[in-house]
Amino acid sequence: MPRPRKKRRREIKKVPRSDATLPEYDRRTCPEGLVTRRQLREKGLSPGGHGPVAVLRCKYCAYRPDQSCNHPTRGWLYRVDLARPKRVPTLAQEWALDRAMAARSTCPECRRRYYFCLPLRTQGRCDPCDKGYEPSPDTYFASTAPVTHRLAA
Fold it and tell me: Residue spans with biased composition (Basic residues) (predicted)?
């Protein structure tokens, strides 16, 4: 019988906050003009090719003000004045995305298009075709006829 392995503790890198490459801010102490990527998205902006200018420390590092935050839950802060408007996809790009999603959500046997992606790699068809029951009408599109698109672009 093999001996159980001892779990190795992951070595914690303690970097002094003064040696951090980017300035770090605790929550609710960020200066005006620095926002996270999610906040940029809510404003309809993107970073515009610019990298982060500061780090938003995680809540656990608030108890360690002398060390820099190297947890995966930290956030990156971007400057709002360098941000650009988000790109709007063209109609052809939206059609291509719609065709790709249709391929993932259409059963090859019954030709129904569902509101969710099907397990085509493992099963090869939808659950009703695989198990032999009738699907409920609220899980798939009622008509499989081509629909004129009412896309945003």
Answer: 1-12
